[in-house]
Structure formats: C-alpha cells, structure tokens
Amino acid sequence: MAKKTNKYSADQIGKPTETVEKNSFYFGSKNFKLMLIGLGLILLGFVLMMGADANTTPEGKFDPNYWNEGIFSFRRIRLAPMLVIAGFVVQVFAILKRNKD
Are 36 and 87 in contact (CB under 8 A)? Predict the structure, then answer.
C-alpha cells in the first residue's frame, strides 16, 4: 500500500502560497475581434442596401409614374444580403469559439 501524503504540511504554515487565478470570463480578445468583424459586415451589408426608392427620379423627387430599375441591382439583391448573412455567421462563430486560456 502506498504511503498517503498530505498536500499541506506543518512546514508550510505562515509561508505565502502562489495561487494562479484563472480568468473566469468566457470571451477572450479574439472573440471580441471576431464580433466586431461580424458587426462590421452586417453594417456594411445594410449600408449597401440603401439607395433611392422604386419611385424616385434621378433628381431625387418622388414620381408615382417613374420606375427606378436601380432597386434590382446586383449590389442590393445579391451582395448586400450575402454580407449580412456572413456577418451573422461570423457572430455565431465568435460566440461559440472557445477560449484556449
């Protein structure tokens, strides 16, 4: 049978002990950087969706008889929504990424 030893002995009483405090916060700096990147992608997507309304003339006036084809541009229909979706995917990844410290 192996001899049982105590973790603490009488020789250690009164001596300072080193305790390593572990960071209990879940998110690290990489998580916050990824969250900011995701937020930037979402904001960029919404900014790219902005523009003139369907019934706005090139002079900027509302005319119910005018049809602006610019609302169907590649930027508004394809690029901007994909950036918003990519931003949300990055946000989810940033939240679920485990800190290795």
Answer: no
CA separation (Å) from 23 to 13, 31, 54, 98, 100? 27, 14, 53, 13, 11
Contacts (Cβ under 8 Å, ≥6 apart) of 71: 51, 52, 53, 54
pTM of the shown model: 0.71
The answer to whether 55 touches 66, Cβ cutoff 8 Å, is yes
Burial 26-37 (b: 16+ CB within 10 A, else e): eeeeebeebbeb
Chunked in runs of 10, what are the mean pLDDT values of the chain (101 residues)?
64 70 79 97 96 86 89 94 98 90 58
